[in-house]
Amino acid sequence: MRRYAPLVAGLLAWTAWAAEPPAPARDVDSLEGTVAALYDVISGPAAKKRDWDRFRSLFHEGARLVPTGKRPEGNVASRVLDPAGYIERSSPIFEKQGFFEKEVARRVERFGHVAHVFSTYEARHDPSDPSPFLRGVNSIQLVNDGKRWWILTVLWEAESEELKLPERYVP
Description:
Layout: H1 5-18, H2 25-28, H3 31-42, H4 52-57, E1 59-70, E2 76-78, H5 83-96, E3 100-111, E4 114-124, E5 134-144, E6 149-158
Parallel strand pairs: 1-6
Antiparallel strand pairs: 1-2, 3-4, 4-5, 5-6
């Protein structure tokens, strides 16, 4: 029986992953829909519960979210999160303040079943705020398995005093 333990554990892990709620077709039928769903699901007013099932449904098993930037000490660092880690890190922030992130420009490179979306974003605490409190670029890698688009990686860096968005990434 012990020799089957890894197989059983693997099947249980796959079953748990496969049991995730399915993504709405509008969210994963196209690159545009998948990127739009990513922005939509994390955006909302303070204390609004995000639809984390919808969020998780966008990501492939093993997907990563990687915020990158210059730290106060002066070094550049990245934090590698899985979707659950992003939810844990972001939920307390979203409970305290509104967060509305929207795409303002996009560049897409695609080959076969893989795509890279370089997506410039702006974030506001309220959609009516006259100017964003945050801007940056999301580098989103996706794969299409023949049925739908999956997000594999979201790597991002926010604009800072030292690092301004170049004109080619701003509408």
